[in-house]
Amino acid sequence: MWHEERHTRIRDLLRASGKVSVERIVSELGVSRETIRRDLVELAERGEIRRVHGGAVLADDEPPIDVRHATRVREKRAIARKVSSLVESGQTVFMDAGSTMTLVAEALSARSGLTIVTNSVDVATRFAARTDNEVRLLGGRFDARIGCTHGSATIAEIARYQAHLAILSPVGIDAAAGASSFELEEAEIARAMCANARSIMIAADHAKIGVRSRVAWCPADRIDVLVTDRRAEKSRAIAAIGEIVSTIEYA
Asked: Is it the case that residue 176 has pLDDT exceeding 90?
């Protein structure tokens, strides 16, 4: 059984019961206890689960933004370069907040003729060093934890724009649940950007494939392009997503 397939199965068991023992995971997956312990350590380091005596439980929240910025950086940079190659000059682009979006902004900042509409201070800052693109930073209630705005005022501003493209990065993407996030406020921003964009591009590394987070905001059949890294190719979840999403691009 492939590494990512085991992780998907472990997530499924946790979603079903909230807590699962090492013994049950070993029995269900048919692999060694040592393999499962390594899997649980990796999932805990990502912030997806909490290890407890004899097993694991679902994490209560997303890991802090500084932890996310330092996680799977190579994959995220590759995704960012691929996303940049798919964006056309002259487009108006929505971008939300997050560690992946910061790297996408770095890659896109070398392009010209774009209008970027974002609620992320990090994203706006990456573009600010160049004058070849126009940046619109959305107002609203400021969340200092992740450096973004959200709330009704931000959503009202989003509604003023009709973007060519929304580039968004969820906590997880699943064939049944679509794109989802942990925080309600982040999900509301992403949902509003989807509603006001002609096309939707999701940037999600392999660890997000097959994951369902707390608040769904975009069904899979509404997604035009999913950009992920090569490690996702062997996942059972990506095959199911590929039957619904129009295009999958691998970085």
From this structure: yes
